[in-house]
């Protein structure tokens, strides 16, 4: 097997791995805000912007980890990260390295990619309807 054949063969599986790892990291932001783990000084009220963001991160991240409703969830989370960037990070500085918004930008575009590419073969969505993934 040459390199092109190998990478082509593994591309759908790597999409699943990208989705799972990104969602786990993203979900950790929600567990921090909503469940207090890992421990943080952040404990927002549920009906505040950070509280709603935490719920989206926790629930949306969990749905993406297992690959359920992946496309619409990824699209919503992509929008959340774009919103978070412009509300919380961009006002601090034009440069993402200075305003702390690098992760928000990356999450935004990774989730946008998943919304269009689908969840990959290792997902509940793929098991429910093979042709629609």
Automatic annotation (TrEMBL):
It is found in: Cell membrane. Pfam families: DoxX. Its main location: membrane. Coiled coil: none annotated. It is a multi-pass membrane protein. InterPro entries: DoxX, DoxX-like_oxidoreductase. Keywords: Cell membrane, Membrane, Transmembrane, Transmembrane helix. One of its GO terms (cellular component) is plasma membrane. The keyword Cell membrane applies. It comes from the Bacteria. The chain crosses the membrane at residues 46-66, 73-91, 103-124. The keyword Membrane applies. Belongs to the DoxX family. This is DoxX family protein. It comes from Methylorubrum extorquens (strain ATCC 14718 / DSM 1338 / JCM 2805 / NCIMB 9133 / AM1) (Methylobacterium extorquens).
């Amino acid at each position: 097997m040459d390199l092109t054949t190998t990478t082509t063969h593994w591309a759908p599986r790597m999409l699943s791995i990208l989705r799972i790892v990104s969602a786990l990291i993203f979900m950790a932001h929600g567990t921090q805000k909503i469940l207090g783990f890992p421990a943080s000084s952040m404990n927002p009220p549920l009906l505040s912007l950070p509280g709603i963001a935490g719920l989206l991160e926790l629930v949306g991240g969990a749905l993406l980890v297992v690959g359920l409703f992946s496309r619409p969830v990824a699209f919503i989370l992509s929008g959340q990260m774009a919103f978070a960037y412009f509300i919380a990070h961009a006002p601090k500085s034009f440069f993402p390295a200075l305003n702390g918004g690098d992760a928000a930008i990356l999450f935004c575009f990774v989730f946008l990619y998943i919304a269009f590419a689908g969840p990959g073969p290792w997902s509940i969505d793929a098991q429910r309807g093979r042709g629609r993934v």
